[in-house]
Specification:
Layout lengths: L9 E7 L2 E6 L5 E3 L14
Antiparallel strand pairs: 1-2, 2-3
This protein binds zinc ion (ZN).
């Protein structure tokens, strides 16, 4: 288990109805991007 993950590294794994779903690369947790505004997504792969 990882304690106190800040979810600093995330990637977008899906988009649905205008909502981005992101996965934390550190703890593997998945969020809606809107729930985690401080998240900075660095990867923008096309
Ligand atoms: Zn995390």
């Amino acid at each position: 288990m990882l304690a106190a993950c800040d979810h600093n590294r995330t990637q977008i794994i899906a988009r649905r109805d205008g909502v981005d779903y992101v996965e934390c690369l550190d703890c593997r947790q998945i969020f809606e991007a809107e729930d985690l505004e401080p998240v900075v997504v660095e990867e923008e792969e096309e």
